[in-house]
Structures are given as C-alpha cells and as structure tokens.
TrEMBL record:
EC numbers on record: 3.1.3.-
Protein name: Phosphohistidine phosphatase
Residue spans of biased composition, Basic and acidic residues class: 25-40
GO MF term list: hydrolase activity
Keyword field contains Calcium: no
Xref: InterPro entries: His_Pase_superF_clade-1 (IPR013078), His_PPase_superfam (IPR029033)
Chain residue ranges for the region called Disordered: 14-40
Coiled-coil region(s): none
Superkingdom: Bacteria
Keyword Ribonucleoprotein in annotation: no
C-alpha cells in the first residue's frame, strides 16, 4: 500500500465506563470505575496490536476522559502529549469536527477522546457508510464506553468534512469478567 504525506488516521475514542454521578457532584469530576480502567487498558493493548501510535491527542477536560488516556498508556500505547480541549466536553458532531480541523498539520494520527452522543455521531457522519462493512456493523450496534472508531482520510485536517473519511476499524473493549 502506498501512502502519502496527507494520509491521515483519526481515532475517535469514547471514554471508558465511569461511575454514576453522585448528588451534587459535577459531571466533569466523575472517575472511571475499575471495569472502566480495564476497558481503557484493553484499548491501549488493541491500539498497539493494530500498530496505531498517536502523533497528537485531543482530550475532553472531564476526569473520566483524562483517566481513560492514562489507562491507555498503561495498556502499552505510548501517548503523545495530551492537549485538553474544553470544546470536546458535551460537544456535538459539528464541534468535534471543528476541533479535529485544528489538529497539527504534521500529525498523521490524531486521537480524540470525548463523549457520546457527539463522538459517535461524528464517526458516523465522517464515514457515512464508507469503509469496512464489519466495522460499520459494529458501529451500528452502538458506541459503548471505551469503544474506538478508526477512520482514514487523505488530505489536510483543515479540509476534513462529513462524508470524506472511511471507517477502517471499530473496537469495543473486552468486557471484564
């Protein structure tokens, strides 16, 4: 397979399972559960198995997204410096796209860690049915906590648009027994 300098990989990751909000607790302060930590480590191992390393990471400021990134690193996936992007908290698909368009031009692989429903909607709209049929089948079943959509795109990040990428892979972490 021939690659060009404009071949891009966009990894959209929903944070792993988090504890329920307690009375009076700010939603942004929710931590991962033990199962969520294991899910995120599974994702880290899966990314390594897939040969996916990250050149740039954009992460929602929520505690659960930041903890997800730490556990991915613990799972073996070396992380780039994590940029906290406040617009990713409760972002809709359009806002997720706007954030991605601001990625560094030299980043070939961008990991975005955020929340549902914006992240799953962005994955669906970016690929719009193009790519791997098994990956689309999994995506159609839902985008649970810890799920990862890997999309391919050719061009500058600034020109990424809905229906301009292909869904290459979709991974749901292995449930903890």
């Amino acid at each position: 397979m021939t690659t060009s300098a404009e071949d891009r990989t966009l990894v959209l990751l929903r944070h792993a399972s988090a504890e329920s909000a307690s009375a009076g607790q700010d939603d942004r302060e929710r931590s991962l559960t033990d199962a969520g930590r294991e899910e995120a480590q599974d994702v880290g191992r899966w990314l390594v198995e897939q040969g996916i390393g990250c050149d740039e990471v954009m992460c929602s400021p929520a505690q659960r997204t930041r903890e997800t990134m730490a556990e991915i690193a613990a799972g073996g996936c070396a992380e780039a410096e994590v940029e906290i992007e406040h617009r990713l908290y409760n972002a809709g698909a359009e806002e997720v796209l706007a954030v991605v368009r601001e990625a560094r031009e030299d980043a070939s692989v961008l990991l975005v860690v955020g929340h549902a429903p914006g992240l799953p909607a962005a994955a669906s709209l970016l690929a719009d049915g193009d790519g791997s049929a098994p990956a689309h089948d999994l995506l159609a079943e839902g985008f649970p906590p810890g799920a990862v959509a890997v999309l391919r795109y050719c061009g500058p990040w600034t020109e990424l648009a809905f229906d301009s990428a292909t869904l290459d892979r979709f991974h749901v972490p292995v449930p903890v027994s």
